[in-house]
Amino acid sequence: MIMKEGANILEEMNDRSREVFRRVVESYLASGDPVGSRTLTRSMNEQVSAATIRNVMQDLEHMGLLGSPHISAGRVPTQMGLRMFVDGLLEVRDLDVQDRQKIDETLNANAHHVGGLLDRVSTALSGVTRGASLVLAPKREAPIKHVEFVSLAQDRALVVLVFADGNVENRLFTPPAGQTPSSMREAANFLNSLIEGKTLSDLSTAIRHEILVRRQEIDGLARDLVESGMAVWEDEGERHERLIVRGRSNLLQAEGGEEDLERIRTLFDDLERKRDIADFLDLTEQGDGVRIFIGSENKLFSLSGSSLVVSPYMNADRKIIGAVGVIGPTRLNYGRIVPIVDYTAQLVGKLMSDRS
């Protein structure tokens, strides 16, 4: 959808100004280099002089759509200019057959669990787009089938959850002091008596209630183990590796200057902390299609000077459960990236629905 301000500017442009603006942006997106008037004279639909084009480019710069990185250089689109181009002039291509085949081949590989499937999705996206990919996995909502505690050392244990859909997940944690094999068995038996048909979030609530009601029935060591083991899942399980990031090296190869590299490092730091996972999903919840965030429009990575193309994916009930996206420099080939992200999101949604 075209922003009101951008729509008004486009309507006020004459055909020549619109063509010059479009060709500057398209050339910049293709090469990353500033575009000069002499370059444009060779590609314009009508015969115009370089001086005439320079005057048009100066007008576009005055309107805030183009900028000059150096005094003697050509022009590049500003963030406002890129936004207007994406909303009003971008021609989205059909998905390339080779891109579709690469994504299909990756996703059709046998995956024993959702994590493995989505990891391959992220790898495929970064490989096809040559950018960095993001895949937000859904929360674990399958009912739990079995819980077990495994002692690894005096200060290390494993809590294992087996889900009804066949997935098995585990976490390392430090158990309370003094644990014995019998207290671990008692803790597991206590949990397994509660889990039938419950999801992880349901179980957490039930545990607190049952510990209060049956406080005298469960040994103190086992009770401490239950509380500490499930705390690991509450604090880490919901967010652990929910945001899968692949293709960091693609961004490092695309950017050359030290300032650009520092922006990319800032982006990676944001991703590693995973503090904005909820915000990443929020970006997609205003609609079920592809959304494009350019530069500082993106509240997740505003310091990186990057663009994000993102789309949610849905389950069989048409509920948004995750998202896929591609990060790259602001001069992304948006016309190619948009259909790739859109197709991948739809395919993931179908696969997730089929698995459920």
From TrEMBL:
Residues 117-338 form the Heat-inducible transcription repressor HrcA C-terminal domain. Gene3D superfamilies: 3.30.450.40, Heat-inducible transcription repressor hrca homolog, domain 3 (3.30.390.60), Winged helix-like DNA-binding domain superfamily/Winged helix DNA-binding domain (1.10.10.10). InterPro entries: GAF-like_dom_sf, HrcA, HrcA_C, WH-like_DNA-bd_sf, WH_DNA-bd_sf, WHTH_transcript_rep_HrcA_IDD. Pfam families: HrcA. The keyword Transcription regulation applies. Keywords: Repressor, Stress response, Transcription, Transcription regulation. One of its GO terms (biological process) is negative regulation of DNA-templated transcription. The keyword Transcription applies. One of its GO terms (molecular function) is DNA binding. Negative regulator of class I heat shock genes (grpE-dnaK-dnaJ and groELS operons). Prevents heat-shock induction of these operons. HAMAP family: HrcA. Belongs to the HrcA family. This is Heat-inducible transcription repressor HrcA.
